[in-house]
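Please annotate the following for my students:
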Amino acid sequence: LSLYGYWLAPSWLFLVVMGLVGGWAAGTIDATGNTIVAARYNERIMNWLHGFFGVGATLGPLAISLVILLGSDWRGSAFVFGTLLLLLAVCVWVLLPNGGSANPAQAQDNLGEESSASGMETLKRPLIWVAILFFFVYGGVEVSIGQWAFTLFTESRGLSDQLARSWVSLYWGTFTIGRFLFGVISPWFSPKTWLRGCVIMTTFSIALLLFPDSRALGFASLALSGVSQAPIFATLISLMPKLVGREHAPNGIGYVVGAAGVGIAILPSIGGILAERFSLEAIPPFILFLAAVLIILFELLMRQETQQNEIG
């Protein structure tokens, strides 16, 4: 409905209202979809779910370009995507048993998809605040690299626009491919083990950005950073029922997904402020600092989870 609102928007204010509606709906879909997959499936399926998110993010701009090439404008692309979502909603409604309404025999299937604890009870758990901070910082790291890499490499390090675009595409491409890859190999290792390795490798890959005179290190940084970050978000979401308990997991997933969104909104902007105040070369140390904070928060998260299990 919000996309159809974009298509028909008679004024800027109406467009803003539709943006608020669409943002609320998209955030709800994100949190609910992650909750259902975390309750019913494992880390492999969660990584594949997020991998297909990357596929959609890659194909979306191409679809918009095609719509414009066929003679429409941004309104036409909103109509196309609104129609695709409407068809998807119809498919989901048809495929779900009883039109989406569960009967008592199916109630057990929904175990873990709805919190039996209140939101305030969930927020009283120290571990959830560590998780919220982790996802807040992680969202900032992920998007800061993708958002500022093009400007950093073109305006500060002298790369051509075309080459810089290719490098940024490499970052998001390895990000998407990495999620499918980790979905395949996830049964081979303990999630905590390779999550720790991925957080450390993310920090190492960002450190490679500190050398402005080396194009090879810059290229390696983006490629390695995409692969290293690929499974972090999806796998930790999948582990939330184990980390905070099934009764708190849906609340917790909603909180951490929201925290990641806030981090995406705030932290890259702080990078821009630092670039304006000092130079674009202030951005890599800032992102490296955030990555170092991620390591600390991850270890605190694992320590809190261990203590919680010992108490339990």
